[in-house]
Predict the 3D structure of the following.
Amino acid sequence: MNPHQKSNILLDAMSHPTIIEFIEGYFDNTVMGLQTEFFFMPPNTKGFTPHQDNTYVQADENSFISAWIALTDVNENNGGLIIWPESHNEKKLVTIENKNIAYKNQDPNARSRTTNIPKNYNAYSPCVSEGSVMMIDSWLVHASNNNISKNYRYALLCTYIKKGANFRSGSTAKRKLFNLL
Ligand SMILES: O=C(O)CCC(=O)C(=O)O
């Protein structure tokens, strides 16, 4: 959706000095905006299958990171994220096509493939309170739980790239560099 293109409130939130300072330290370089997505996840929506964001973005090493911002309190019943801590150290993992793709109200790529996760990583599903930010390394394997609650689960995904780094624009995402405030 790239809602930042129509909302200065989102662009302002994405440019929050605490986030920018963290990312510029992580990259040791200047950061630019790349993409935003708003997830509204109605009740009974299936979550994303395990994936690494950089499979799609194909950015240069150590130059791409996402901030996933919970806009409601999330947990394993209402579509909270699932992460496999330390799995980013594997870098690019093999993915396989997910044949069971019947779903609705989801990003078109949310369940199209799944990542083969080595057995030594254990899934962890954190409870995240509204307004908290999870920083997701470009190679961290993550997924989301199905929303089996009665309420919508809202989240904002903001992605950032190191200035000058290469990336894939993507036919659906249409990623395009932009300046932060
Ligand atoms: O918000 C979600 O359900 C998952 C989002 C996600 O994993 C992603 O955009 O990479």
Summary: The first strand starts at residue 31 and ends at 39.
